[in-house]
Protein: Acetylornithine aminotransferase
Organism: Snodgrassella communis
Amino acid sequence: MHNYLTPNFNFAPMFPEHGQGSRVWDKNGQEYIDLAGGIAVNALGHCHPILIEALTAQAHKLWHISNIYTTQPAQELAQRLVKDTFAEQVFFCNSGAEANEAAFKLARKYARDHFAGTDKHEIIACVNGFHGRTLFTVSVGGQSKYSDDFAPLPGGIRHIPFNDVATLDAAVNDKTCAVVIEPIQGESGVLPANAEFLQAARKACDRHQALLIFDEVQTGMGRTGKLFAHQYYDVQPDIVSSAKALGCGIPIGAMLTTAKVGSSFTPGSHGSTFGGNPLACAVGCAAFDIINTPETMQNVLLQGEKLQAGLQELGTAMGVFSLVRGQGLLLGCVMSDEYKGRAAQLMQLALQHGVLVLVAGQNVLRLAPSLLLTDADLQAGLQRLKAAITAFVHN
């Protein structure tokens, strides 16, 4: 098939046609176990009937009305997000990048409103972070491979090593308007933050009257066994970004914040044409009501333990993984020294053996399956991955 899209993606040699739960079929009828979850988006698998029902019902009512008005689905989803988090206000947009863009703009606007004339505009971020693909968010993300080609980049951004408390303390100063951290660095290798690092960030922000932003685009909405990963720690942020699983495949992003901070988004200061779209918010409400339950959270924790144990067993038996890390159903398998830098090759072989997985950099195989992953799909996925690994080591 001829590709009419721009060449910034290397598409896999498989054309997916339909999916159900944790299984996907291509146009030839070949079945795959999906342990990639659309890069942590398909939190409830493919074509969940309750989400289909919510989308269909809203489609018969209202698709779009513009942000001159608010709608019941938008208010209801915002209410859910506020009720079970630190937040008091929500800004809706269309993606994680837009949620982070809003967060960074709000942090600078808040500093300008409250500390005028002090040059308080600097954002402290982490090396190897990932916050999106807009020019601002790719600049805040600490990976030059994503930003070098688009220079000159926005200024006022500093990067520190992830989980380095001493460097963090030295970097944050009175010119800092915000510190942004992923509770688990996803794109750079599924690296969990230390509790000490997150707590030190909160204290440093308090000392210098800066805002603490948690990027939970990938870790949010139950991925780690709690609604948001930062809820495992005694650390309250000022802003949290969310997307991916928020709509379970329908494009939506959200920035959560307090009323004090959110008040700086005065009328006209920021916006989004499709943000708060009734279709997306209706699906988001239905998804939230399934995800934010003890049953789903318990499944994430139990299946996460089983999947991690199975991957560790495979890694030890086959000598391919030196470490399996992560939390809940966001896991990273670090390639052993013998196979260092070959994660993408293993991902391709996994596809050939009927299982969808991801990479996080050149050296980590990443898995982010449905939060409703069943024992049958988990075991089938591990069996197919074992066959792929067997072919990999004998290649």
